[in-house]
């Protein structure tokens, strides 16, 4: 196959021409750049703005005027009124002078202040220096409870048993007061335990700093079926 190409469309012949034209354009631009002149701008054309120092505003110092309290009023003048009495005038007022000398037969009355009786508002202690004590000690206390307890028949028939804790207060005189059940088992057993504690004789009262005080005490009563 024969290639048909017009000699006018062939650009290879014009390659050198285009290169020369490009070199000329580039050289022209380079010369134009060298010939380019810049104008100097003098600094006198611009107005320099000086910093204006702001005057400090002086704030006047004001002080609150002290208000003086008004002076106290002058004390009232006391004028002594003297009543001049003639020597011949008799005075109606008479002074009674009692004899303060004490003889052996003179009776002197003394007032003795009685100690205040114990009130219900006295505090109840739980731990004191000297705790209350049953007459004869803890051994006698256990004997008293064992001899005084009567097992309720109803509790025996129903097979109820257990330990009842009874709380009470030993007063300053040793009496047992404010008896109540702290932890119970059965109403019948609780009632019997309260009866036994209420029948106790007087205890030796507890003391705090050598003074008898009210002390709370708890006694366990054990109900056991045999």
TrEMBL record:
Molecular functions per Gene Ontology: energy transducer activity
Keywords: Cell inner membrane, Cell membrane, Membrane, Protein transport, Transmembrane, Transmembrane helix, Transport
Entry-linked PANTHER family: PROTEIN TONB, PROTEIN TONB-RELATED
Top-rank taxon: Bacteria
Residues covered by the TonB C-terminal domain: 136-226
Protein name per its UniProtKB record: Energy transducer TonB
GO biological process, one term: transmembrane transport
NCBIfam families (UniProt xref): tonB_Cterm (TIGR01352)
Annotated localization: Cell inner membrane
Gene3D superfamilies (alphabetical): 3.30.1150.10
Transmembrane annotation, as ranges: 21-38
InterPro entries, per the entry: TonB (IPR003538), TonB-dependent_transducer (IPR051045), TonB/TolA_C (IPR006260), TonB_C (IPR037682)
Family, similarity comment: Belongs to the TonB family.
Membrane topology according to the record: Single-pass membrane protein
Main location: membrane
One GO CC annotation: plasma membrane protein complex
């Amino acid at each position: 196959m024969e290639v048909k190409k017009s000699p006018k469309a062939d650009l290879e012949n014009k390659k050198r021409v285009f290169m020369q034209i490009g070199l000329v354009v580039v050289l022209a631009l380079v010369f134009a750049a060298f010939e380019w002149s810049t104008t100097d701008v003098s600094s006198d054309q611009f107005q320099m703005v000086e910093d204006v120092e702001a005057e400090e505003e002086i704030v006047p110092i004001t002080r609150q005027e002290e208000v003086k309290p008004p002076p106290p009023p002058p004390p009232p003048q006391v004028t002594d009124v003297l009543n001049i009495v003639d020597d011949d005038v008799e005075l109606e007022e008479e002074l009674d002078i009692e004899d303060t000398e004490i003889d052996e037969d003179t009776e002197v009355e003394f007032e003795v202040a009685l100690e205040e009786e114990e009130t219900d508002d006295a505090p109840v202690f739980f731990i004191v220096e000297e705790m209350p004590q049953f007459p004869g000690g803890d051994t006698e206390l256990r004997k008293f409870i064992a001899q005084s307890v009567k097992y309720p028949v109803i509790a025996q028939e129903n097979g109820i048993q257990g330990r009842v804790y009874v709380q009470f207060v030993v007063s300053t005189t040793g009496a047992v007061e404010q008896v109540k059940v702290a932890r119970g088992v059965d109403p019948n057993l609780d009632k019997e335990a309260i009866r036994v504690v209420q029948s106790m004789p007087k205890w030796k009262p507890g003391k705090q700093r050598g003074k008898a005080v009210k002390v709370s005490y708890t006694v366990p009563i054990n109900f056991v079926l045999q």
